[in-house]
From TrEMBL:
PROSITE patterns given in the database record: G_PROTEIN_RECEP_F1_2
Protein name (record): CNR2 protein
Keyword Membrane: yes
G-protein coupled receptors family 1 profile domain span: 32-212
InterPro entries named in the record: GPCR_Rhodpsn, GPCR_Rhodpsn_7TM
Molecular function per GO: G protein-coupled receptor activity
GO terms, biological process: phospholipase C-activating G protein-coupled receptor signaling pathway; positive regulation of Rho protein signal transduction
Chain's gene name: Cnr2_1
Chief location bin: membrane
Amino acid sequence: MKDLRRYLVLKYIQYLVLSSSNAISTFLGLLGSLYTIIILQSAKVSSKSTVVLISSLAKADILVSVSIVSEMVVWTFEVSISSTAFTSALLQNLLTANAHVSCLLLSCVAVEAYLITFFPTDSRHLRTVKNARLTSRIIWILVTAECTLFQTDVLLKASSTSAPTRSPCVLLFHFSSTAAALLRSLSYFLGILLRIANVYIYYKIFFSMSNR
């Protein structure tokens, strides 16, 4: 459907073109995701692997909604938070999870578009609803584990300040801090590689369709 294609273009611009999200792109992305979720409830939309990936992509914006609503509640009602650093990190991790899940799912859609364009018959056994659901589930598990590590690192930083120098908490803090730093670097370089790969894929598809 044309609406789903427009939604994908919006999401590509939001996560793979813009260097960082802003208020306008976030607002448009939330509206697009809400509209897409409504569209996907229609019986006219057939259950295909691409639709499964797009559905998971739209649902990822729930994390952004939770983060925005939480900040509005704290600001409007002046709710006192016992651990400001922990809560701030949690809200930031929700946005990080949304961005990483969205980038990976958009890359999966791009790979599927490449297979449909160049290997429509040979890749049919790979482009199934079951594989799409499994891929989405794996992406969510990996990103959840990543953000859990980030949140644990923040928690250990707060607890290590009052712990003895040679306590197990401090040793665990050093380990988690190193692992979190390495994972952040890996995520950064993976994001660059995904941008390059997506540009290359759609470049190939565009010129393939032009030649036809």
